[in-house]
Amino acid sequence: KMAAGEAAGRYRSSMSRSKDPSGLLISVIRTLSTSDDVEDRETEKGRLEEAYEKCDRDLDELIVQHYTELTTAIRTYQSITERITNSRNKIKQVKENLLSCKMLLHCKRDELRKLWIEGIEHKHVLNLLDEIENIKQVPQKLEQCMASKHYLNATDMLVSAVDSLEGPLLQVEGLSDLRLELHSKKMNMHLVLIDELHRHLYIKSTNRVGQRNKEKGRMSSLVKDASVPLMDVTNLSTPRKFLETSQFSTPGSSSMRDISLLEIKEDTELDPEENSGVFMGILIKGLAKLKKIPETVKAIQDRLEQELKQIVKRSTTQVADNGYQRGENLSQDNQPR
């Protein structure tokens, strides 16, 4: 027993010196290898067995003493292990779900892109259908604008419709007849505008001059009964003076000299011919949109002599008629001179 106690103490001291179990094992092996006698080895072996038995007994006693704490620790460890295992399984499931969602999102993205493209196509088709519907109403609206002499609106409408029919709607076979009709109207539209321009440039302006002189002569005949008033041609309004002054402009409007062609706009609520200067500006703007300014200049040059002769002829007739009327009035008043 003394020997066993000494061996156990020696092993404990060895364990206290070194926490590494391998060091104790090496010490035992060295002790056994250095002894020459078998009996010494058996003795050493017995000491070791006794020491191990004592350690087992001490371990059993400690287990009995700390059974509750040990059981709680083991259960806690098992619970922690189970939680870790469950968490790993859940993380694995989450990863699989994320991969599945990623694949589904890729598929949804392709579907959404396809639907987006289809939406754009449908929107474009609807816009084309609306444009076709509006263009089908162009002939009727054009006729109304031409009848009311709103030529600028008519020109804008016609040019826009022809551009659409010969552009985005060129492949629509159902619009071929309408395309030919509107194209023909566009080719002949400038002729109507040129005629209107000549009418205002040569006829309308001179008619206003004659009307003013007629009214002036009537007023002077009422005032002066004795003699025939002489015609003062220095103050007569000629077409050139008409363009340079605002004597025939409507109240509140500026002179033609101050009006830019780009600023001229057509009011559909008013009479388009109320202001001849603005009306002629609208006609020129319409001709510019039709790209027919060269043809307009050529037509004005070709018809200039003829129109001036017509002005002289109409003026002569007006003067003769005015003189004859005055002679009749004087003869009725017994003043044959």
Automatic annotation (TrEMBL):
It comes from the Eukaryota. Keywords: Coiled coil, Exocytosis, Protein transport, Transport. Residues 272-322 form the Exocyst complex component Sec8 middle helical bundle domain. Residues 45-97 form a coiled coil. It holds the Pfam family Sec8_C. Residues 46-144 form the Exocyst complex component Sec8 N-terminal domain. Residues 1-21 are annotated as: Disordered. GO terms for cellular component: exocyst; growth cone membrane; synapse. InterPro entries: Sec8/EXOC4, Sec8_exocyst_N, Sec8_M. One of its GO terms (biological process) is vesicle docking involved in exocytosis. Component of the exocyst complex involved in the docking of exocytic vesicles with fusion sites on the plasma membrane. Belongs to the SEC8 family. This is Exocyst complex component Sec8.
